Amino acid sequence: MNYQTYKPHKALESIVKFYWTLEVPFDPKNQKQQIVPDGCIEMTFNFGDNIKRFTSETDFILHPNAMVMGQRTKSFDILPTGKVETFAICFYPIGFANFVKMPLENLVDKETPISELFGQEEADILEQQMIQAAATRQRIDIIEAFFLRMLIEKNTISNIVKSTVDALIKTNGTTHISVLLKDEISKRRQLERHFKKQIGISPKQLGKAIRLQATLNLLLNKKSETLTDIAYESQYFDQNHFIKDFKDLVGVTPKEFLDNEHMALSALFYK
Known about the structure:
Order of helices and strands: EEEEEEEEEEHHHHHHHHHHH
Structural class: alpha+beta
Number of helices: 11
Helix content: 40-55%
CATH superfamily of the domain at 2-150: Jelly Rolls
CATH class of the domain at 2-150: Mainly Beta
C-alpha cells in the first residue's frame, strides 16, 4: 500500500484538513477492510477498479467513482475488486458546509455522487479533469480551483457550532457539551439543530469520533503500554467505559482491532 498526504492551499487550510492518495496493486488474496468513523467528511475520486462497500455480511453496493462520504456513525467494510488508485479530500468537521446548502445530516453514513451535490454538468467536468490530470499535484490544483470557485460567499457557519467543534478538537473529543453551554437547555437545542445541518451529526457523536481517533493513534503507535493507560490518557471513566465506546464505533474490542488483519487499511492512516 502506498498512502500519501498533502497540505492544502493557505486559502483553504481552515476548511480542508489534507488531501490523500492511496495506491494498492491488485491481489486476489485481498480481504475486506474496515473503515472507522473519524469525524470528517471526505470527497473521493476513484481512478482504479470498483470498490465494494458492504451493507451486510454478503450484500454490497459499489462506490460511485466521484463521491462524498458523509459523517460516519459506525464502521463499515470495503473490498477493492482490483487495483486501488484513489485521490481524496478530507474536510474538517465544519469544512464541507462551506460548499453546499443542503443539511449535511442528509449525507450521514452513505455515499453521495458529486453530481447530486454540485449538478451533473459541474460534476462531469470536474471528474474528467481529475481523470486526465497527469499527477497528484495537478489534481490538487484542479480541486482547489473548483473549491475556491464553489465556496459559498458569506456562508454562515454558526458561531456556536464553530466554537463547539474547536473545543472538541482541542480536547480530543473529551469536552462535555453541558460545560460549554453552562447547562442552558435552549442553547443545547439550538446547538443540536445547527450541528445536524452544518456537521451532519450531533455534538456527542462528533466528540466520540474525535476521541476515537486520538485513542487509535495511541493504540496503533504504542504510545501507551496498556489499555488502562490508554483509557486514562483519553479521559475515560475506566477501562470498561473505554472498551464499550470503542466497540460501539468500531464493532470490535481494542484487542480484536489490533489482531485483525481486516484493519490494515484503517491502521495505515495512523502511521
